[in-house]
Amino acid sequence: MNDLYTEASVKKKVTIMDTFIKVITVFVVAVLLAIGFLFGQTLIGLLGAVGLVFAYYLIPRLSVVYEYVFCDGQLDFDKIMAGEKRKHMYRLDFEQVLIMAPANSHALDSYKSNPAAKKLDFTSLEKDRKVYCIVESSGDIQTLVYFEPNEKMISYIKQKAPRKVSEY
After folding, report:
1. How far apart (Å, rounded) are the C-alpha atoms in residues 128 and 98?
2. pTM confidence score
3. Distance CA 62, CA 152 (A)
4. Is the separation of the CB atoms in 151 and 158 below 8 Å?
5. How far is residue 37 CA from its own chain's centroid?
6. With the CA atoms of 67, 70, 102 and 18 taken in that order, what torsion angle do they form, in degrees rounded to the nearest 10?
7. In the prediction, which pLDDT does 2 show?
8. Could you read off the pLDDT tens digit of each residue along the chain, which spans 168 residues?
9. Distance between CA atoms of 153 and 141, rounded to whole angstroms?
10. For residue 104, what are the contacts with CB-CB under 8 A and spacing of at least 6?
């Protein structure tokens, strides 16, 4: 049996909000530790130490890589934080997919206008990248999944579900 298998990954761009969270976290921890040590405030110093542990775990998790794995009709989306912690985010089956097309395609206009549709973004947030959108329907719930597949993944998806993939 010839199973179709491919994977791709994209590194998420560091946003202004990510930078803001890092700066504020470091600033608050530094101020709490400084006040605790300089003025002998044990409780504030203890809060600073707890904040230091919190920052140790939070800051690396802002570095995100999304990995896409296509295996014989199923597409998995994983989030890899700090290069070591993997979290499974979403799985879709191409039997429930209505259409897959470039995100700026007019074929998606009727689906994007649905206010009840759930939107999932697994892109790098970089400009000049070819972003695709998959519309999945399970029951009454429509899900729009944005991602950046490579050419090999697109061709495998076309082999598995040729009528559901649009290039325009």
Report:
1. 26
2. 0.85
3. 29
4. no
5. 40
6. -10
7. 65
8. 467 899 999 999 999 999 999 999 999 999 999 998 888 888 888 999 999 999 999 999 899 999 999 998 899 999 999 888 999 999 999 999 999 999 999 999 999 988 889 999 999 999 999 999 999 998 888 999 999 999 999 999 999 999 999 887
9. 26
10. 131
User: Torsion angle, CA of 73/127/12/153, rounded to 10 degrees?
Assistant: 20
Residue 138 pLDDT: 86
Q: What is the pLDDT of residue 39?
A: 83
Backbone angles phi and psi of 72, in degrees to 5: 45, 55
Distance CA 61, CA 84 (A): 9
Q: Enter the DSSP assignment of 107.
A: G
| 140 alpha carbon, distance to own chain's centre | 24
Helices (H), ranges, the chain: 16-38, 42-61, 109-112, 151-160
Cβ 25 vs Cβ 55: under 8 Å: yes
CA distance 121 to 116: 16
Pseudo-torsion of CA 93, 98, 104, 110, nearest 10°? -140
Q: In this structure, what token pair is assigned to residue 9?
A: 């990954």
Distance CA 143, CA 97 (A): 9
Q: Which two tokens stand for residue 149?
A: 């597949």
